Every structure is written in C-alpha cells, then in structure tokens.
Amino acid sequence: MVTKLRFSSLKLPIGGRSPRWIGLLVLGVALLTGVGAFAQTANFGSATLAPGFSADAGTLRGRTGGSSSLPGIVANRDKDGNLCLGFGSSTPDHLITLQGNFSALTLQVNSNRAVSTLVVQGPGNVVRCASGNNRAPNATLSGTDWAGGTYRVWVGSNVSGEQFNYTLTIRE
C-alpha cells in the first residue's frame, strides 16, 4: 500500500523550508499507521511450521501479563463471529509462520487452571479467537483453511494485568 501525503494548503515559512517538526510528524504518523515495512517481533518466540511438523516444533511457552484490550488491538469479533476477549500485551506473544496451506489446525493454551484467551491475526488480517471459562479454562481454537503466511498470536487473560505461565500447543 502506498500512501501519499499532500501538504498543498500548508504555508511554509520564508525560504520554502518546512520546519523540522513536520518531518517528525510525518514519520510518527507513518509509524502509527503501519506505513512502511518494519520487522515483526514477538514477546516470547516464534515457530515456522510445514505440513507434517513435529510436536516439539508446535510447542511454545510464554507468560501472560498486560492490560491492553486484545479486541481493541485486533478486532471485537473473528471471521466466524466469535467474540475476541481478554487482556495482554500490545505486542504479539508469538509469531507463527505456516509454510504452505493447512486444511486444519488446533491451537490450545495450557494455563494451569487460569482462564486464558487466544487471539490470532493472520494473512489478510483474518482474525480467529477463542476463550476459556471457569469450567474449561484453557482456550482452544480449532479451525480449517489456514493459509500459508505469518500469524500474530496473543495469549491473554480475562483479567487485566493477570500473569500466569502457559504452554501453547499447535497440532494438525
């Protein structure tokens, strides 16, 4: 996506040079809106998975803890109309790169009895969400038609700022 910024109505100071703050403002807007290509990072780790991947390759670990509303970062509802819930870090916890298409995948959080949430944003900004509850606290997301590409994954809590260790398992 190419974004064109126009300043035709902006009055420049004598000499035709714009103040330095305009350049900083443009840079700030570009960073906030995602213009440009910047390296993606994750809080805890990444996985690159090809069809037939091993159980070890599909196991990631992390720790929840954040007060950012995950629906506010990604979406209120996923592609199937499910609510996206929870609190976590504004940065994804994991990056998962799928080398090829997968007909079905299951992502499950083992949170040792803490109620967990799961928010996944994939290629084309397709969002998938799941959440646990008091009787079944581990968020489990099973879905079909996973396109190859990079997925940003947040593991959250239903309580702002709550921290707990977890294991995220991904299975075909």
Explain how this protein is built.
This is Peptidase S1. The protein is mainly beta and 172 residues long. The protein has a single domain (45-171), classed as Jelly Rolls, CATH 2.60.120. Helix content is 10%, strand content 36%. The chain is built from two helices and eleven strands; from the N terminus they run H-E-E-E-H-E-E-E-E-E-E-E-E. The protein has helices at 20-33, 70-73; strands spanning 45-49, 59-63, 68-69, 87-88, 94-98, 102-110, 116-121, 127-131, 140-146, 149-157, 165-171. The strands form three sheets. It has a five-stranded mixed β-sheet, with no helix packed on it. It has a four-stranded antiparallel β-sheet with strand order 2-11-6-9, with no helix packed on it. A hairpin with a 5-residue loop joins strand 7 (116-121) and strand 8. The radius of gyration is 20 Å and the shape is globular. 31% of the residues are buried.
